[in-house]
Amino acid sequence: VLHTAAALFAARGYRDTSVKDVADEVGMTKGAVYHHFPTKEALAIAVVEAHYAHWPVLLEEVRAEGFSAIDTAMKMLDRAADVFGSDPVVQAGARLQLERSLIGAPLPTPYTGWTDLLTQLLTEARIVGDLHEDVTPEQAAQTLVATFFGVQHISDTLHARADIAVRWREARALLFRSIRA
Ligand code: LUB
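^ thats the input. predicted complex w/ LUB below
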């Protein structure tokens, strides 16, 4: 139900997706869907939460590859760009966050999870001397998040994210060249 709702939210947005649409697509009754998600808002919240659930898993995977902290940050964002380009749950979460004012229930706060994660990694990077002396972890994290958000948004708006990987790697090449020691 969650994946089907995500596909519909990603394609049509919150307003133009009904619980009935989800039920029909899944092949369930509306009542059966309401058994899992009591309201349409609850369904949207679950999709946004599932969007964010990707990143701790991704962090563990990238950490396990043994990169330096600054390279872990870069690889995390590279992998996130690929996921934004392919995963309907991640795409739906991003669209729902853009439409948050239309959803009559509070969604998780956007952006701060990534900013905190990248600040932590870049603080580790600074300790081992991998961060440029003029750069603070907080500033670099804010700029990386703003850039990634903008790159994925423009790619989505203009090209349905078909070029997100290329656009992101161009942007992050500039950014990481400027934040590395
Ligand atoms: C990321 C989006 C789209 C931030 O973390 C978030 O909330 C995000 C959806 O709101 O990009 C950039 C890593």
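Residues 40-64 form the longest helix (25 residues).
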